[in-house]
Fold Histidine biosynthesis bifunctional protein HisIE.
Amino acid sequence: MKPDFKKGLLTTVVIDSKTRAVLMVAWMNEESYQLTLKSRQTWFWSRSRQKLWHKGEESGHTQQVNKMTLDCDQDTLLVEVTPNGPACHTGHMSCFFNQVDLDKGEEHAGLG
């Protein structure tokens, strides 16, 4: 099964194969998808920089791809990886570390 790029960029959820923790969410276009398949490392489309982005190209924190699964609509991709260091540019293992206080609806950095 192949992604449906006619809908635009693919939302890509990256998880740690071992811990199952969600590491990050990024976007793939057809070229980054093909580079990911070929290299077995994650490549994305940077919406802010408007260019291809090889995860770890600057930090060295690459992600070795172990498995990729498409959702039922073929427009969201789940990528299971073995991370070589933190996924987040802040140095956190996961980009998801800002807990929302459900009672107040406010963010609390670093909790969770």
In short: The two ends are 36 Å apart (CA to CA). The chain has one domain: 9-85+93-108. Residues 21 and 59 are 20 Å apart (CA to CA).
